[in-house]
Amino acid sequence: MTITIDRPEAPAGPPKLDREALRRAQQETLATPRMDYSLLAKMMFKPVDLMYGKQGSFTKFAMLEIIARVPYQAWERVGYWGVHRYAGKSALAKRVFERIVEARADQDNEQWHLLIMQDLIERNGMKQNWLLHKAAPWFISFFYYHVSWVLFLVRPEASYRLNAEFEDHAEHEYMTFVAQNPDLEFMPDPGTYADEYGRYRSVADLLRQIGHDERTHKLDSLENVKDPHYAPAR
C-alpha cells in the first residue's frame, strides 16, 4: 500500500528575472543609498577591501560568497537547538523548523553564487593564492559565524540586521561592478550551472541576477528583524 503525503516544498529561492527586469533591478539598486552599516559590518567590509581592493572582481565576489553562507549556517545550528528545546510544544517547534528550512534554502542560493564565481575565475585564468583565497576567508567566516549565532541567542533582531547589512553591501557591489564594466554585456554566460541556476544572455545579466538575489535575502532579513522571535503558527 502506497501512502501519498502532500507537504510544502522547500522554498524556491529568489525569483529569476528576465533581461529587462534585471536592468530595472540594477538601476533601482544604484539609485538606492546603501544602508547605514554598523561597526560590526564595517569590521568585515574593511579587511575585504584592503585585501581585495575596493573595486569589484570575480575573486572578491568569491570571497564574499564564502562569507555570505555563514549566518544561515549559524541560524540553522541554533534552530536545531530550538527544535530540541521546544520539543514539548509542537506548534512552536514546527515554526522553528520552518526557519531552519528557510536558512538552508538561502545557504543553497549563496552556494550557487560561489560555484558560479569560481567557474568564472577559472575560465578567465585568474590566479588565487592560499593566504588570500583560503586562509583569509576562513578566518573572516569563523569570526562572522560566531558573531551571528551569539547575537541570535542574545538579540536575534541584531543578527538578522547584520545579515541584511552584509546582503545590502553585496547587492551594491554586484550592481556597481556591472555598471563599471560594460564589456560584461558582450561576455556570454557560460551556462555551467544553467540547469540549477538559469541561463542568461550575458555575464552582466548573470551578475545582475546574483545582485538581485542578495537584495531578496536582505529584504527577508529585514522582515525577520520585525519578528525575530519564534512564535507558534496561527
Question: Quick recap of the structure?
Answer:
By secondary structure, the protein is an all-alpha fold. The chain is built from nine helices and no strands.
Task: Give an overview of the whole structure.
The protein is mainly alpha-helical and 234 residues long. The protein is 71% helix and 0% strand. It contains nine helices and no strands. It has helices spanning 19-31, 39-52, 58-68, 70-85, 90-123, 130-154, 156-180, 194-197, 203-226. α1 (19-31) packs across α7 (156-180). The longest helix has 34 residues, at 90-123. The radius of gyration is 19 Å and the shape is globular.
Helix-strand layout with pairing:
Elements: H1 19-31, H2 39-52, H3 58-68, H4 70-85, H5 90-123, H6 130-154, H7 156-180, H8 194-197, H9 203-226
Helix pairs in contact: 1-7, 1-9, 3-5, 3-6, 4-5, 4-6, 6-7, 7-9
Query: What coarse outline follows from CA principal-axis ratios?
Result: globular
The count of DSSP E runs of length 2 or more, i.e. the number of strands, is: 0
Portion in helices: over 70%
Structural class label: mainly alpha
